[in-house]
Amino acid sequence: MSVRKLRLTIRPNARADIESVFLYTRMHWGTEQRGRYRAKPNVVLDSLTRHPELGVLRNDILPGIRTFQVERHLIYSTVTETQLVVSRVLHVNQDTSGKIEM
Questions:
Q1: Which residues contact residue 79 at a Cβ distance below 8 angstroms, ignoring those fewer than 6 apart?
Q2: pLDDT tens for each residue of 9-25
């Protein structure tokens, strides 16, 4: 049985979040650690495009929003019939108030 793969859309805020994580990692733990960490989001996002139900449904934040934890960060996404839309990638300790949009 084949699994349908959704198209991945990463919103500008999420792209900025990801770049910020990589920059912070390089500044605090070095280029080698950044390199190890850099591959993880790609692997996770590819898995989520095939199995979006792996994300935890968080209707308490916004209806239809899902989260998936990667290390100390949460990927915030929504799913349509054809795509996985990533709206933010935030540290688990960050306040999400007003930061998550569909």
A1: 6, 52, 64, 66, 85
A2: 999 999 999 888 888 77
Whether 1 has a pLDDT exceeding 90, the answer reads no
| CATH superfamily, with its number, for domain 7-91 | RelE-like (3.30.2310.20)
Sign of CA dihedral 71, 75, 24, 42: positive
Instruction: Measure the CA dihedral 25/26/32/34, to 10°.
Output: 40
Q: What per-residue confidence (pLDDT) applies to 51?
A: 95
Q: Where are the domains of the chain?
A: 7-91
Residue range 79-94: mean pLDDT, rounded? 93
Alpha helices (H) along 2-102: 12-50
